[in-house]
Amino acid sequence: MIGQSLGSVYLAWEALNKFTPQFYFDTSGYAFTYPLARLFGCKVICYTHYPTISSDMVERVKQRSSMYNNDSRIAGSIWLSRCKILYYSIFSWLYGLVGSCAHLVMVNSSWTRSHIENIWRIPERTRRVYPPCDTSALQMLPLERSTTPPILISVAQFRPEKAHGLQLEAFAIALKKLSPEFPKPKLQFVGSCRNKEDLERLQKLKDRSTELHIDELVEFHKDISYRDLVQLLGGAVAGLHSMTDEHFGISVVEYMAAGAIPIAHRSAGPMMDIVLDEDGQQTGFLASEKEEYAEAIVKVLRMPEAERHEMATAARKRAQRFSEHRFHEDFTDAVRPILSAT
């Protein structure tokens, strides 16, 4: 992380020498360039999607938990874990120092804001501005779901942090909870593969579905068009999301806009910003363990159509809070003071 940060400073130095703007606007998370931009006399504005380092990342290393930011080899070694904690502590202090140089900080969620305020310590200059989610095509889909069997959908790249395996385990448990006469639901995975590792991960998911004896009820769709994705979402009764601490969760917003009841991970963006009541009406479910996911799946499948329609209507209304129009309004309100002060 330190190497990448220093590289960004060199890149910014080259750019600022060729042209020095009045406003330096960063949307890529290169906080180490902010002090340099201020030295060049720029007003520094940033839109931060995800903190480069957070207290959650440090805590996982302290607990020696093997996750996407902590290799199992490091987690299994006391000395390597201690070295990484020291490295993270130094980097976190530096990150807080450079981040505090921003004149205006916009963040994409309440979770990101809490971490940025904790590290950069400039809450008076920090504003939450939800990202623009273009769900216009999804908002046009009918809320009625007459598909038989009922369809569950999971939309996410086949990356390790997305925890698709948890969804398979939960689906298998849910199937056992349904009565024999209940129509067997299907689970559709929709995602893309960036590299060989993602392809291998996809194959492992297929193998796991066979091991669980549910392969006939699980479908995998790789690298499909957006039009096909919209069609699949239009037939789903529920959408699964299982990434821990996803800073926002656009896929969850897409489920809600499409009329699919979201079953999302109880953390970060989905918990703090998205799957909240709308006008006193529940908009979806939150879970963290496979048993909780299975219970939520069964609830949605057994839900009377009128009740499901009511929840889907509330969820669709909530999804409108994250529209492109709302982003434009909030973004304009945030930058107006700093622009008008010049």
From TrEMBL:
State the top-level EC class. Answer: transferase
Catalyzed chemical reaction(s): an alpha-D-Man-(1->3)-[alpha-D-Man-(1->6)]-beta-D-Man-(1->4)-beta-D-GlcNAc-(1->4)-alpha-D-GlcNAc-diphospho-di-trans,poly-cis-dolichol + 2 GDP-alpha-D-mannose = an alpha-D-Man-(1->2)-alpha-D-Man-(1->2)-alpha-D-Man-(1->3)-[alpha-D-Man-(1->6)]-beta-D-Man-(1->4)-beta-D-GlcNAc-(1->4)-alpha-D-GlcNAc-diphospho-di-trans,poly-cis-dolichol + 2 GDP + 2 H(+)
In terms of domain of life, where is this protein from? Eukaryota
Glycosyl transferase family domain location: 145-318
* Subcellular location field: Endoplasmic reticulum membrane
Q: What pathway is this protein said to act in by its record?
A: Protein modification; protein glycosylation
Statement: the UniProt record of this protein carries the keyword Transmembrane helix: yes
Could you tell me the Gene Ontology terms of the biological process aspect for this record? protein N-linked glycosylation
Q: Which Pfam families match?
A: ALG11_N, Glycos_transf_1
What are the recorded GO MF terms, alphabetically? Answer: GDP-Man:Man(3)GlcNAc(2)-PP-Dol alpha-1,2-mannosyltransferase activity
Q: Which residues cross the membrane?
A: 85-106
Q: How does it sit in the membrane?
A: Single-pass membrane protein
What InterPro entries does its record include?
Answer: ALG11, ALG11_N, Glyco_trans_1
Gene Ontology cellular component terms for the protein in this record: endoplasmic reticulum membrane
Boundaries of every ALG11 mannosyltransferase N-terminal domain copy: 1-120
Q: What is its EC number?
A: 2.4.1.131
| Keyword terms, alphabetized | Endoplasmic reticulum, Glycosyltransferase, Membrane, Transferase, Transmembrane, Transmembrane helix
UniProt keyword Membrane, yes or no? yes
Function of this protein?
GDP-Man:Man(3)GlcNAc(2)-PP-Dol alpha-1,2-mannosyltransferase that operates in the biosynthetic pathway of dolichol-linked oligosaccharides, the glycan precursors employed in protein asparagine (N)-glycosylation. The assembly of dolichol-linked oligosaccharides begins on the cytosolic side of the endoplasmic reticulum membrane and finishes in its lumen. The sequential addition of sugars to dolichol pyrophosphate produces dolichol-linked oligosaccharides containing fourteen sugars, including two GlcNAcs, nine mannoses and three glucoses.
In which family does this protein belong, per the annotation? Belongs to the glycosyltransferase group 1 family. Glycosyltransferase 4 subfamily.
UniProt protein name: GDP-Man:Man(3)GlcNAc(2)-PP-Dol alpha-1,2-mannosyltransferase
